[in-house]
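Weekly sync, protein design subgroup
Attendees: M.S., D.O., the rotation student, P.L. (late)

Item 1: inverse folding check
M.S. brought a backbone from last month's batch and wanted to see whether the design step gives back something sensible before we order anything. D.O. pointed out we never logged the input encoding, so this time it goes straight into the notes. Structure tokens as presented (167 positions):
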């Protein structure tokens, strides 16, 4: 009986979102974040710009009566902007009580990255990237840059995003 319970526990653990990551591309580089933060993937909706905001905040979208701020991840990562195309999409992510949209070049897949295939990110001094790039994950011959979604915005930027009326 104990053996059965242990096997069932192990199987149940495998069914959780532990070690699951959503991978996406920016400038032909692969990134990943924990899938537990993902709310929804959207085709690029119309975006209402907000004048006078930070450069990477593209504006807001109206999704089922909710107003959601949308960030361009290329601009957030200090990459050159490109024209949006048919693979460009918005990843709705959530942490605590904040939901934001992240514009990415394309979504790749949801994949499992085992803990022993994750290595700490190399330290890049005090650069912006060192704040939210937490690790690298090896999947076969590929390397994914693992980011911490909860650190995409600074505390001040998070406060500003929360001030955008939701409805």
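Designed sequence read out in the meeting:
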């Amino acid at each position: 009986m104990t053996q059965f319970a242990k096997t069932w526990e192990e199987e149940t653990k495998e069914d959780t979102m532990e070690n699951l990551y959503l991978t996406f591309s920016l400038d032909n580089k692969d990134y990943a974040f924990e899938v537990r933060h993902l709310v929804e993937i959207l085709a690029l909706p119309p975006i209402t710009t907000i004048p006078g905001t930070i450069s990477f905040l593209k504006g807001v979208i109206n999704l089922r009566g909710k107003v959601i701020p949308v960030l361009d991840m290329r601009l957030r990562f200090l990459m050159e902007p490109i024209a949006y195309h048919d693979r460009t999409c918005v990843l709705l992510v959530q942490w605590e009580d904040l939901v934001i949209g992240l514009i990415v070049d394309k979504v790749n897949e949801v994949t499992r990255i085992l803990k022993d295939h994750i290595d700490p990110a190399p330290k890049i001094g005090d650069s912006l990237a060192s704040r939210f790039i937490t690790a690298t994950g090896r999947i076969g011959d590929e390397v994914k840059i693992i980011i911490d979604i909860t650190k995409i915005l600074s505390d001040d930027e998070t406060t500003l995003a929360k001030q955008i009326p939701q409805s």
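Discussion: The chain has four helices and eleven strands. Residues 2-14 form the longest helix (13 residues).
Action: P.L. to compare against the previous round before Friday.
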